[in-house]
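Page 47, continued from p. 46.
Same chain as before, 306 aa.
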Amino acid sequence: MKNFPFPVLRCLRLLAVFLGLTAAVFGAKDKPVVGFSFDTLKEERWQHDRDTLEAKVKSLGGSLVAVSANGDDSTQVRDIESLITKGVDVLVIVAHNGEALKRAVGDAKAAGIPVIAYDRLILDCDVDLYVTFDNVKVGALQAQYTVDHLPAGRMAKIVTVYGAPTDNNAKLVKEGQHSVLEPLVKAGKIQIVHADWAADWSPANGKKIVNAAITKAGHDIDAVIASADGVAGGCVQALVEEKLAGRVIVTGQDAELAACQRILRGTQTMTVYKPLQKLADFAGQAAIDLAKRQKGRHHDNARQPF
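Result:
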């Protein structure tokens, strides 16, 4: 046996211990490990998804490792690469930017790790599963509620606050909104006085958009169609500052606690409830199923196709 200096031996022993721990955590054949990469965990909605999916995964004998990119593309790519290196059995991803993760998803697939796109589509890559709600329907519900409650007898003025331009869901919600709004615009019954995208679904950006709308159109605004509750919170703050809160229709989605409280106070008008637990439970079950099938592939790829 070759004699190594003591410091080298100590380093080798520490490395062996580290590798052993990594194998124990991420390589247990009877306990699938699900890696969950979030765009952000700052919003109540995503915290709820994480907790529900983790409970489902644990109930099925697996474990969950969740990481958050805090709205940064580069951080999310690094998070995913780290989960791949650690050897998770399946990846669940809430993409910050659906166009920025193609390479990371490709790396996961090359490593034999199935990928689930959770609620947000990852574009131009081979994901194993995409789970989401009918986002076009969500937008249509927001717009239909708005037009049903607009004042009669005159042209109504509307501000539309879309979601993040990097999120395909935001485009689908917009599509649903405009399926209701465009015929009324063409008929001269409503006017969209201002429209913009709220980067990162940020309340602060929602506030800026409504501030800009008021600067442009004055106080003569009948409704703000905000695409999500977080964005709606910022919109409401802008209306509060102009003493318009409660006089202007404000929409949202996700039925977050803060949004429901605003509805009770009369500053937000509606929200679209989505059964998040069903989505998270389905994704958790699918993640464990995919992980177990992938393990079967490693044992006998010819007889256990996916």
